[in-house]
Design goal:
The structure holds 2 protein chains of 2 kinds.
Chain A lengths: L1 H28 L2 E7 L7 H15 L3 E7 L3 H13 L6 E5 L3 H6 L7 H6 L4 H6 L10 E2 L2 E2 L2 E6 L1 E6 H6 L11 H11 L1 E3 L2 E4 L10 H12 L18 H15 L11 H9 L5 E5 L3 H7 L4 E4 L9 E2 L1 E6 L6 H14 L2 H11 L12 H9 L1 H8 L4 E2 L7 H16 L5 H22 L6
Helix pairs in contact in A: 9-10, 15-16, 17-18
Chain B lengths: L3 H57 L2 E2 L8 E2 L3 H8 L1 H31 L5 H15 L2 H12 L5 H6 L16 H26 L3 H9 L4 H12 L1 H17 L2 H7 L10 H11 L3 H31 L2
Antiparallel strand pairs in B: 1-2
The chains are: A alpha/beta, B mainly alpha.
Family (chain A): Belongs to the bacterial solute-binding protein 1 family.
Pfam families (chain A): SBP_bac_8
Main location (chain A): periplasm
Chain lengths: 444, 316
């Protein structure tokens, strides 16, 4: 009896173990499990909002089980995605900085989405037509769709309206040109002797943000940062960028209305919130953070122009990495379409401050209601009319860093704009050389 | 016969030891078998995660692709010479040297000072020891986030207090002349308490009777420190110095969190350079080559320190 009882026990244990082993096989029949990598690039509580969104998706789609994986900054997300691809376990979808798509496509790391769009019975034009035209440049490469715009931004000018009134300026008539802005910044700077107690204007400069702000200023000065049609060229050593950097440098050294040195984005928004800076240029992505934390009246305005009104887009697109199984690819596509639908797109926009890339989102009642209550969010959308793509080249990050390192030297008074930009151009050309060697300079 | 006699002897004597050696080896192996078995798990893991990875790095360092779409091909030592020719790498090496010296000396000095002041155990010194050890317990990333707030220009904790005294507020992490030193302060703050532990342990080993004798001979506190305590602490110094230098190369979490090597590469350290090559430039060959150079330097340092320690142990 004892023996058989032991046997029974053994059998029971073996049964449990077999069950445990068999479970994954059963799970294959159940929901398709997919991972979504997502970054949190700006201030605010994005991670919690993402949890809410994914839970809602899973509740509505019993056949798919999506897991949101927080992956740090935009740059970190690229790194982690590449590591996962190399390890043979790519995530099914990634919220990827919109200007990394070209580099990933060059490295064969993206799934071409044309087939998935076609399988839905829509054309590329119909599919892309849902989104603001300014966003399409960063989603389409060689006439194929590689990304779906998810949350996007443009740089904005944030103004502390109370302080503007104090200085005798009308916050309802924000500065239109660089001349106006310089004038405002001078009037909004407060000094005690040599010491500045309130800065007129702050523009962030840390890796990533610095390049974007340089593109913003260069575009407002009539220029282009890079060749939109070809990933092997940047235009650093040009009059338009020289003018942009010289003006930024003048704000620091000549007018003394902008703090010296390189200041990262979070430090700039903290300075604005604490009243230490009266104006700042920052992403629309920080709008909700400012709205929630500013204890004063604030205004947002278009980025002032020197030559023309133009700004780059920022933000991220949803991508599907290369090398996925078909069922995961399909599940990811379902998730992506759901996340970029007008309702969800609008909800995410209200939660984060990014604008919703799907134009229909602005026709939903919730959104109309929200914009009436928060006219500042409308400014971000209106600025889209003058927005253009974000710089994207072969090796975007190092090419961007080639410029940023030099800009940081200028802001710290260690180099003059002209020589800095010449050095940046030289370094970037060197970084881009291998790509040019197999494209533009590969001759018959 | 007389010839055979001596010839037979060596054969007999040489055959016996050979068997003996074999037997001794097997018995020795049998005796130490449990030891090998106990070592096996860590050897397996070392092979998988340390030596395996090192081997892979060694291979990767020899390959490069000429253009983005070209296949990898063997380039020999080209990656190593490319790294050595890269001004960002030499800059990182110089930064790392400044960082190593500038963090090791102050943190070891502070650690010794703390240990001497708190060598006697009582309630107050125990509490102070715990307080000084606290930074060690805070993860580097958390500490960096904390210090980011402290260093925040104009509105941070440091500027809030120092701001009243200085005419122009420094941008602690945004000025290439200051940023590296700001980073070094965190390392010193974090490591001094850790090294204090070693000095406290070292001080326990200073012979009581020698101290007493010196006291009776009329040696003052300085004389005792200079001629008895410091010489006795020499092995501790050696050990802590090696640890401090290794830390200076391997602990760069705060660079990741606070500056990403900027502004303008002024806080770029060797390990961060490797990271940049691997993930930003996506250049595995160059990253592996830089890793090999760093490994060689670290191994050289470790070998040197082991030799110095060994000679001390073997000495009188």
């Amino acid at each position: 009896m004892l023996f058989s009882r032991r046997l029974m026990l053994g059998l029971a244990m073996a049964g449990t173990m077999a069950g445990a082993l068999a479970f994954p096989a059963l799970a294959g029949e159940g929901p398709t499990e997919i991972d979504l990598f997502f970054p949190v690039p700006v201030d605010g509580k994005l991670a919690r909002d993402m949890g809410t969104l994914i839970k809602e998706f899973n509740d509505g789609h019993p056949d798919i089980k999506a897991t949101a994986v927080y992956t740090g900054s935009y740059d970190d997300t690229l790194i982690k995605t590449r590591a996962a691809i190399k390890a043979g376990k790519p995530p099914s979808a990634v919220i990827m900085s919109a200007n990394f798509l070209l580099d990933m496509q060059i490295e064969n790391e993206l799934t071409n989405l044309d087939a998935l769009i076609k399988a839905d019975g829509t054309t590329k034009e119909q599919f892309l037509g849902q989104f603001f035209p300014a966003l399409q440049g960063n989603a389409v490469i060689n006439r194929s769709v590689y990304g779906v715009p998810f949350h996007n931004s443009t740089p904005l000018l944030y103004i502390n309206a109370d302080k503007a009134k104090e200085a005798g300026l009308d916050p309802n008539k924000p500065p239109q040109t660089w001349a106006d802005l310089t004038d405002w910044a001078k009037k909004l700077t407060k000094r005690e002797g040599d010491k500045v107690t309130q800065w007129g204007l702050e523009i962030p400069c840390a890796y990533d943000y610095c390049g974007w702000m340089m593109e913003t200023l260069t575009m407002s000065n009539g220029g282009r940062y890079y060749n939109e049609e070809f990933g092997g060229e940047v235009y650093y050593d040009t009059p338009s960028m020289l003018g942009a950097l010289t003006w930024w440098n003048d704000l620091v050294t000549k007018h003394k209305v902008h703090p010296p040195g390189a200041t990262p984005g979070p430090a700039v928004s903290t300075a604005f919130i604490s009243g230490n800076a009266a104006m700042m240029m920052l992403s629309t992505g920080s709008l909700t953070y400012v709205r929630d934390n500013a204890k004063f009246a604030y205004k947002v305005a278009f980025i002032p122009r020197n030559v023309r009104n133009a700004v780059p887009i920022g933000g991220a697109s949803l991508i599907v990495p290369a090398g996925l199984e078909a069922d995961k690819q399909k599940a990811a596509w379902t998730l992506i379409k759901w996340m970029t639908s007008p309702e969800k797109s609008g909800w995410w926009s209200r939660a984060t401050g990014y604008f919703a890339p799907n134009m229909a989102a602005y026709k939903t009642p919730d959104m109309i209601d929200f914009l009436n209550k928060n006219p500042d969010a409308k400014t971000a959308v209106e600025q889209l009319d003058i927005a253009k793509p974000w710089f994207a080249t072969y090796k975007t990050v190092p090419v961007r860093k080639n410029l940023e390192d030099e800009v940081m030297l200028v802001l710290n008074g260690k180099k003059q704009p002209k020589e800095a930009l010449a050095a940046a151009q030289k370094a970037a050309d060197e970084t881009l050389k291998p790509y040019n060697a197999e494209t533009s300079l590969k001759l018959p | 016969m007389s010839l055979a006699e001596p010839a037979a002897l060596p054969v007999a004597t040489s055959a016996a030891p050979r068997l003996d050696v074999l037997k001794r080896l097997t018995t020795r192996f049998k005796a130490s078998l449990p030891a090998y078995l106990l070592l096996l798990p860590s050897l397996v893991f070392l092979a998988l995660f340390t030596y395996g990875a090192m081997g892979r790095v060694f291979v990767d360092a020899l390959y490069q692709r000429a253009t983005p779409k070209a296949p990898l091909h063997f380039v020999g030592l080209d990656n190593i010479s490319a790294v050595l020719a890269d001004s960002a790498f030499t800059g990182a090496v110089v930064n790392n040297l400044i960082y190593a010296v500038g963090t090791a000396i102050p943190s070891i000095g502070l650690a010794l000072l703390f240990a001497l002041a708190l060598s006697r155990t009582n309630a107050v010194s125990s509490a102070l020891r715990a307080a000084l050890f606290l930074p060690v317990l805070i993860p580097m990333v958390a500490a960096s986030a904390l210090f980011m707030f402290i260093f925040l220009p104009n509105v941070g904790l440091l500027d809030y207090y120092i701001g009243r005294l200085l005419p122009v507020l420094p941008n602690w992490l945004g000025d290439p002349d200051i940023a590296l030193y700001a980073i070094m302060i965190i390392t010193i703050w974090k490591n001094a308490g850790y090294y204090m532990l070693f000095f406290l342990a070292g001080l326990q080993a200073v012979p009581e009777d020698v101290m007493e004798a010196a006291h009776l001979d009329g040696a003052g506190p300085y004389m005792r420190l200079r001629h008895i305590i410091l010489p006795e602490l020499k092995p501790t110094f050696l050990f802590v110095t090696v640890i401090a230098i290794l830390n200076a190369v391997t602990q760069v979490d705060h660079v990741f969190v606070m500056t990403q090597g900027g502004p303008s590469n002024s806080t770029n350290l060797v390990l961060f350079y490797i990271y940049q090559q691997a993930v930003e430039h996506y250049d595995v060959g160059k990253a592996s080559a830089a890793t090999l150079l760093t490994l060689a330097a670290l191994m050289g340092l470790t070998a040197l320190s082991f030799r110095t320690m060994a000679t001390r142990e073997g000495g009188p």
